[in-house]
Amino acid sequence: MKAFVNKDTCIGCEACVGICPEVFSMDDDGKSIAIKEDISSEYTESAQEAKDACPVVAISID
Fold first, then answer.
1. Residues 4-22: what's their mean pLDDT?
2. What is the pLDDT of residues 47-59, one digit of tens each?
3. Which helix H or strand E contains 47, and what residues bound it?
4. What share of the chain is helix, strand, coil (3-state, %, to 5)?
5. Model-level pTM?
6. Strand ranges inside 1-62, DSSP E
7. Do 61 and 23 form a contact (C-beta atoms < 8 A)?
8. How far apart are CA 41 and CA 47, in angstroms?
9. Using an 8 Å Cβ cutoff, are 20 and 29 in contact?
10. How much is the average pLDDT of 27-35?
11. Averaged pLDDT of the chain
Protein backbone atom coordinates (compact mmCIF):
# COMPACT_ATOMS: atom_id res chain seq x y z
CA MET A 1 0.00 0.00 0.00
CA LYS A 2 1.10 3.52 -0.75
CA ALA A 3 -0.22 6.87 0.43
CA PHE A 4 -0.67 9.83 -1.88
CA VAL A 5 -1.44 13.47 -1.07
CA ASN A 6 -3.17 15.76 -3.55
CA LYS A 7 -1.08 18.91 -3.10
CA ASP A 8 -3.71 21.06 -4.83
CA THR A 9 -6.30 20.04 -2.24
CA CYS A 10 -4.10 19.92 0.89
CA ILE A 11 -4.58 22.90 3.22
CA GLY A 12 -1.58 22.10 5.43
CA CYS A 13 -3.53 21.46 8.63
CA GLU A 14 -0.99 18.79 9.71
CA ALA A 15 -3.67 16.40 11.02
CA CYS A 16 -2.11 13.52 9.09
CA VAL A 17 1.35 14.26 10.49
CA GLY A 18 -0.05 14.36 14.00
CA ILE A 19 -1.72 10.98 13.56
CA CYS A 20 0.89 9.14 11.50
CA PRO A 21 4.29 10.89 11.31
CA GLU A 22 5.87 7.64 10.12
CA VAL A 23 4.09 8.08 6.77
CA PHE A 24 3.31 11.81 6.47
CA SER A 25 5.41 14.95 6.83
CA MET A 26 5.25 18.56 5.71
CA ASP A 27 7.18 19.99 2.78
CA ASP A 28 8.74 23.45 2.41
CA ASP A 29 5.47 24.78 0.98
CA GLY A 30 3.53 23.80 4.12
CA LYS A 31 1.75 20.94 2.37
CA SER A 32 1.67 17.31 3.42
CA ILE A 33 3.76 14.69 1.65
CA ALA A 34 3.72 10.93 2.01
CA ILE A 35 6.70 8.59 2.08
CA LYS A 36 7.58 7.18 -1.33
CA GLU A 37 7.92 3.63 -0.03
CA ASP A 38 5.15 1.16 0.66
CA ILE A 39 3.50 1.71 4.03
CA SER A 40 4.85 -0.75 6.59
CA SER A 41 2.17 -3.10 7.88
CA GLU A 42 2.62 -1.72 11.39
CA TYR A 43 1.51 1.74 10.18
CA THR A 44 -1.35 0.87 7.81
CA GLU A 45 -4.02 1.40 10.46
CA SER A 46 -2.70 4.80 11.56
CA ALA A 47 -2.18 5.85 7.92
CA GLN A 48 -5.81 5.00 7.21
CA GLU A 49 -6.85 6.96 10.30
CA ALA A 50 -4.85 9.95 9.01
CA LYS A 51 -6.57 9.63 5.61
CA ASP A 52 -9.99 9.56 7.27
CA ALA A 53 -9.12 12.59 9.43
CA CYS A 54 -8.12 14.80 6.49
CA PRO A 55 -10.68 17.63 6.47
CA VAL A 56 -10.38 18.21 2.71
CA VAL A 57 -10.03 14.54 1.62
CA ALA A 58 -6.58 15.17 0.10
CA ILE A 59 -5.17 11.72 0.97
CA SER A 60 -5.64 8.46 -0.87
CA ILE A 61 -4.21 5.07 0.00
CA ASP A 62 -3.91 2.40 -2.66
1. 98
2. 999 999 999 999 9
3. helix 44-53
4. 30, 20, 50
5. 0.95
6. 3-5, 24-26, 32-34, 59-61
7. no
8. 10
9. no
10. 98
11. 98
